[in-house]
Amino acid sequence: MELGGKMANKGTGYFDKKGHFFKTAREATESDLAAILGQIGEGESLAPGIAHILLERRREIEQLYADHDAMTGDETGEASARLTDIAGKVTKITRPAG
Fold this sequence. Notes:
The protein is mostly helical and 98 residues long. It has helices spanning 25-37, 47-56, 58-87, and strands spanning 14-15, 21-22. Strand 1 and strand 2 form a beta hairpin. Helix 1 packs across helix 2 (47-56).
């Protein structure tokens, strides 16, 4: 007996954090990135396009953050070292009561 159509098929889908269904993991991730970015611009948001670019340029962006962390980590260490260097040269001044 023919039912006039195909049999059911098994498939894979992906959901973003809001529970929306997507056919690919990339689409679901882009949706989550766009949600994090929020409304950008007036009218239709630019966030989906920016999310696409962020995912497309992921490696370069991650390297940029790694470089930034290395630079700011050095600054924090240098500032801490400067404070330690002068710690022994500071005298606390107390005012007499009255």
